[in-house]
Amino acid sequence: MSSHVWYASYGSNLSRHRFERYLHGGTPVGGRRHYHGARDRTPPADDRPFRLPWRLRFGGASRTWGGGMAFVDVSARGRTLARMYRLTVGQFADVHAQENGGDAHAADIAALAPGTPVRAGGGNYPMLVCCGQVDDVPVVTFTSTVLPHRAAPTTAYLRTIAAGLAESHRLGSRAIVEYLRGAPTVRETYDAAALAAVVRAGVAAAMVPPPRHSSPS
Fold first, then answer.
1. What are phi and psi of 50, to 5 degrees?
2. Which of 180, 179, 7, 17 is nearest to 100 (CA)?
């Protein structure tokens, strides 16, 4: 088994600052929840843009942001923009534990194969999904086994996603608005002008280009 995985994130963890709260601890800008961080706080060895072949949807209720959380619906083909971080298996387990409330153990990751999801824990994101390999390292994401009721994301959450899309995919505000409006709950809740204002604030806060390594905070 590989000692590393690519963690493919597609929600607020698109933002490097937000993702690093899972490694270094702290509270993300605009969030409500403090994270204790990972046991190994070494920065990711690499991060790259990525695309998941499933539909993005928002639902449930986030303890960090309020409002709906991002999920991928693995039963529906689509296009979800992601950012993958190269982590050790132990770091990935700690990230998943903080996100989901239950660990992804090495045995869970070893059991992963494309098309064979593995359940780990019982929180919002218990389904581990292998999305293939990049540079001979498995790409893994997580989502829900049963998608929650649809719910619109908050402006703080969308700002953070917009920042991450600007950082990782080098998208401008117009392209990000178009992408986010592909999710029905976003399109139904935010008119074009309101969403554009939220996205512009996120793009302005983005770290472009993102640092190769960020210091613990």
1. -155, 160
2. 7
Distances (CA, A) of 174 to 75, 81, 98, 190, 197: 28, 15, 33, 15, 11
Q: How far apart are the first and last CA of the chain?
A: 32
Count other Cβ atoms within 10 Å, centred on residue 176: 26
Q: Residue 41 has what pLDDT?
A: 94
pLDDT, tens digit (0-9, with 9 covering 90-100), for 16-41: 999 999 999 999 988 988 898 989 99
Nearest one of 136, 137, 117, 138 to 128, comparing CA atoms: 117
* Residue 90, φ and ψ in degrees, nearest 5: -65, -40
Structure tokens at 206: 């983005």
Asked whether the beta carbons of 167 and 75 are under 8 A apart, the reply is no
If we measure between CA atoms, which residue out of 57, 211, 79, 50 comes closest to residue 141? 50
